[in-house]
Amino acid sequence: MLHTALKTEEIAGITEQAFFKTDALIAGCWQGSTDGDTFAVENPATDEVIALVANCGVIETEQAIIAASDALAGWAQTPAKNRAKILRAWFDLIIEHEQGLARLLTIEQGKPLDEALGEVRYGASYIEWFSEEAKRIYGDVIPAPSADKRIYTLKQPVGVVACITPWNFPSAMLARKIAPALAAGCTVVCKPANETPLSALALGHYAIEAGVPAGVINILCGKTQEIGAALTSSPVVRKLSFTGSTAVGKMLTAACSSTMKRTSMELGGNAPFIVFADANLEAAVDGLMASKFRNSGQTCVCANRVLVAKEITEQFTQMLSERLAKSVIGNGLSQGTTIGPLIQKNAVVKVQGLVAMAIEQGATPVNPPYETPSTGNFVPPLILKDVTADMEIFDAEIFGPVATLISFDHYDESINLANQTTAGLAAYIYTQDANTMIKASEQLEFGIVGINEGIISNEMAPFGGVKESGHGREGSKYGLDDYLEVKYVCLGGLN
What we know:
By secondary structure, the chain is α/β, with parallel strands linked by helices. Helix content is 37%, strand content 20%. A seven-stranded mixed beta sheet has the order 14-15-16-13-12-17-18, with helices on both faces. Helix 2 runs antiparallel to helix 4 (113-133), helix 3 runs antiparallel to helix 6 (197-210) and helix 9 crosses helix 10 (313-324).
């Protein structure tokens, strides 16, 4: 099915100044770039320019770092209960304005409006969660080796934190980093993706309205390499949290080493989705649709390789094809749309290239071609069967609505195929056998394992990977740890 693109002038709500911000947020003020330069933000569904955003560089980044540093002592010394109240007020404002924020997100990122609304709520849930966790930062009293000593530990904020976030979840990824940082007493300098800056800047607006003090949150977009170099080289910035590609994550990690910054890296994935012969196939198809085709396949935890037991491959493929045929491709603002555009033209070219090579190497497309809009960055959803481990598409993070099906003969083969990747973020298994659930969850080399579930992320669970998918965890009670230092205090000379 096809939905025609909407015109920008038909989009209600985007020009509301309450949330439509295009300048950088530095020291509590909105300011343009020093040289007045801007860059264009395009709607990926229509190719229309929707905003001109301040194109910041080194000068503005250094200003933001100074602002965050100046605000650090006051924010760190603010009682945790007071920090919690401000975070809660920020959460409440986001929920109050969720419809406008979701619409803005869809316009700049492309995902269907229902998904955008889900993302706004998902991101806000981290702010709510860490508003509560701020009051639970505990130290310890440790038995001393002698009677004249007392030993205890304190947990203190790491300091100024740099946050670099991606375009695929521009609202949620920013909230997921800022919330624990502020709860811990840190201040932040944030660099959202240039493809989707508006959602991040809108969150900044509501943070200020909620009472976040000037300089505690700073947000700027623009010259990516300049901003990144300034953040990684600054001795004032004590931690960097990054979500994005593995290649960029490695470069940032190396750059941070000169000042021994702490880093959290949530990097690329290559998630296996294993369907064993005893699986509930209806549930497996539901889970795959949710995991693989959400956000048009542009998620780091989406199913990238679908491993199906040989004896059920034909049946599963047919069921999946029938479900996928009901997909509606088009502008995310159009009612009923289930698959929106990819973020930009080069993403389309990448996916098309991977598919073409896979077919040349022997993969077989299953579903008939879809009609796609004449403008925008659309790729029709596709099932490829007869995929093998020696194909390039097996090792690639596809980041598009393409499901690759690989048949396996036995349990050990499925686990070996699943672990045959340098990535280690998420994996999924579908089975009714408890023994298989336990064994597979332990043997899969991934930071997250979903069992009979395609949507695995929430604010109460630790999100993060192993191997080249990075390190650190976001969400849950563990999510504060990356923003805190443990200080050991030894009190001696006691009688």
